[in-house]
Amino acid sequence: MSTPVTDSTLDPLAPSPHPRHPLWVWWKRLSPARQDRFATLGPLLSVLLFLAAIITAFWYLRNEEFDREQESVKRDTEIAQQQIRLRLIENQEQLVRMAREIATRAIDLEDFMGQAVSFARERPEVVSLSWLGADQGVKARHLSPNHPGDLVRWPEPPVAGGSAPAPRSEPAWAFAAARDLRQPVYSRPYESHGSLMVFQVDVPLLDRSAFAGTLVAEYSIESLLRYFVPAEVTRRHAISLVDSDERVLASSVSREPASTMRRGAFVQDVALAPSGNGLVVRGQGWRTSIGLIGNTLFWMVVALSALTVWMLLGTWRHVRRRSQMQSALVSETNFRRAMENSMLTGMRAMDIEGRISYVNPAFCAMTGFVEGELIGRLPPFPHWPPDRMEENNRLLQQELQGRSPAGGIEVKVMRKDGTLFDSRMYVSPLIDAKGHQTGWMTSMTNITEAKRIRDQLSASHERFTTVLEGLEAAVSVLSVAQGELLFANRSYRLWFGADSRGHALLAGSDIDLAALREADDSVDSFGGLPAQELTEATGDAREVFIEPLQKWFDVRARYLQWTDGRLAQMLIATDITERRHAEEQASRQAEKAQVTSRLVTMGEMASSVAHELNQPLTAITNYCNGMVSRVRADAIEKADLIAALEKTARQAQRAGQIIHRIRAFVKRSEPQRQAAKARDIVEAAVDLAGIELRRRNVHIRTYVAQRLPELRVDPILIEQVLLNLLKNAAEAIDNAHLPQARRHIELRVVPRHKAEEGGVIEFSVTDNGPGVKDEVMARLYEAFFSTKPDGLGIGLSLCRSIIESHRGRIRAENLYNGMSVSGCRFAFTLPVELPATATESPSTSLIESA
Ligand code: ADP
């Protein structure tokens, strides 16, 4: 499925939505993570830039402020200096005029005083005004009313030929300087009238260039400052007068100890012209409130910027966390999308009204419709087969009402090409993040193949059950651990009902199911035999008679692993009642035949037996006749009589013995096996056969091996077989009219070990007769086959059935002397458990009989 290309950068012909600005190109090339980083760092950078700009602006403004302040201090200082200078110059001019008038004697002392008074009144800065003579003597002096009162310490007149130089007195120095320079001279400041700091100006009195003294005006430095510095100047800045030693002599601010006075941030010194006496007007400015306000603002900006940076960093962290969550979400979404896309189950989401809001690729692949053809569609949907609209509508309504079965519903779905397929749909509600249901989610699987397999399976299951149900045999499966009947076919149910009792009856003592059930699971009651082996072992067939049903069953049991893995026992019981009856009948008939055969044998031997009985009877008659005649003649002794009677009794006994033997032989009895000795059987057989052999003039030689093991046989039947073989041999010899030399039979009984039979006792009867012709040999054991004119031909056939019923074998073979037959040998075996040491003993016993 191809998705439309939406990224215009992949399509060179598509108009670019943005101009290809290099910055844009750079931005587009960045990975989203880097874009995020830049997007976060941008505001941080701009805040820092803003902070830098603010700092620069503040710095600049501050410098500006400083410059302005500096300027203002300078101006104010200059104004102050100007004011004082102007006053001093004006005063100086007045004083020079007065001096000239004094020098030209235009005024006398009185006038001077008058002028001095008016001079001082108009000038509060002047402390005193004095007229000194050429000798520095005071001619007149006016003290201003605002003078503190102490007399000025006037300098002493210089003493000629002076001694050690006195410390410099400022008035004396000024006087001398004015005298020497002949122009006004300002003294350096000094202390006068107590603590008042003053300086004086000495204006020389020149009388036609002759020095006539000075006019001295004393200025109070403080007053100068107070009166001539404008109030607005002192309001703005501190103006002070400082001497050359940096002592503050007067100041516009309240006087503090000079040492502790803080020096202003802006200081402007201007020399106080025209004095030239080292006095300096000093203006000082402090950082006023404007600095403080600036600082507050500045710190507010800094604080706000810091806050912004902090918040930006916080936002950045938050965004980073968000982007981590986002990337986790994206990978989760991708994972889910990959899952959706790769899974083979079709998914379809619908809103509450049944409008399709989503289909996954598997749904599209299954139906053959593309996403656009399905999304937004209301029912009837395009994948509904037109002939099943009604049914689909009903199912959809059921779906929308939330009544769809949990096991899903089976519907037919139509592909876009019109073909149909079977699907199973499961419906579950779509719940949004707030827990509200927003629609329904349907998953769809194609079950065409599964359905086909299921149909096949159910058909084969049906066939299987039909066969099992139709069986004549009862088939039942019982779980070994729980004793629960897992399966029973119709025959079983018919005979035993639907419970496990019948199974237990059939199983008999095969396994004790109850014990098995109670046994702990962990203990293996089969002696550690793995279930696998147990199930592979096939049970022997057993024949069981079920009393209540009066039926015989051939029961075959085997263990198998049931479909759920449990060990189970399966019994197949075939009704063999009829066969059993037939067998019983057959065996009854065989028994009758044996008895008949014995009677026949006896019948055949009747003349011989009569002859045999005749002898003792004749002897008894003779003895009796003899005794009668001798008793009549009284010619017999008592002792002779007893002897004769004893002989008679012996003969009667002998006759009785013969009859007893015959009776025992022909007596009809149930065939029963018992422990019997081969020797006893041989003796009895030879005893009976002896009658016939004697009549036919045939000798028998018997050889029985010593220490033969006991047999478990019916002795009468074996005796019958032996008698038959001996009789046949005698008849063959007699019928062939053989000479006396060949008229003998040998009976041998020896133990043998045969490969196919194991340990056996072999009875063999060998005669020197004419042997058995080949055609006779082939039909030897056929019933009613005889070569004798009066033969019945059932002898050998009975012999074989008797021997085989004893699990033995019978064989006949001719004996050869060169090419000619010299006799034949009939041999049969009977199985025994041979002791390991039992071998043919050398010591033999021979029973000879004439
Ligand atoms: P019957 O003796 O009544 O004929 P049997 O079944 O005993 O029936 O014997 C079947 C036949 O086998 C005899 O008729 C005889 O031909 C043959 N047969 C049996 N025993 C011998 C033997 N020892 N020698 C030669 N043939 C024999």
Characterise the protein shown here.
- The chain is α+β, with helices and mostly antiparallel strands and 850 residues long.
- It has 5 domains: 307 residues, Beta-Lactamase, CATH 3.30.450.20; 105 residues, 2-Layer Sandwich (Beta-Lactamase), CATH 3.30.450; 112 residues, Beta-Lactamase (2-Layer Sandwich); 95 residues, Helix Hairpins (Orthogonal Bundle); 177 residues, Histidine kinase-like ATPase, C-terminal domain (Heat Shock Protein 90).
- The chain is built from 22 helices and 28 strands.
- Strands 1, 2, 3, 4, 5 and 6 form a 6-stranded antiparallel beta sheet that branches. A 6-stranded mixed beta sheet has the order 26-27-25-24-22-28. A 5-stranded antiparallel beta sheet has the order 12-11-15-14-13.
- Helix 17 packs across helix 19.
- Bound molecules: adenosine-5'-diphosphate.
Largest sheet: 6 strands, antiparallel
CATH architecture of the largest domain: 2-Layer Sandwich
Bulk shape:
rod-shaped
- Specify the number of helices: 22
Beta-strand share of residues: 15-25%
Total count of strands: 28
The figure for the number of domains is 5
Bound molecules: adenosine-5'-diphosphate
Nearest-angstrom radius of gyration?
A: 81 Å
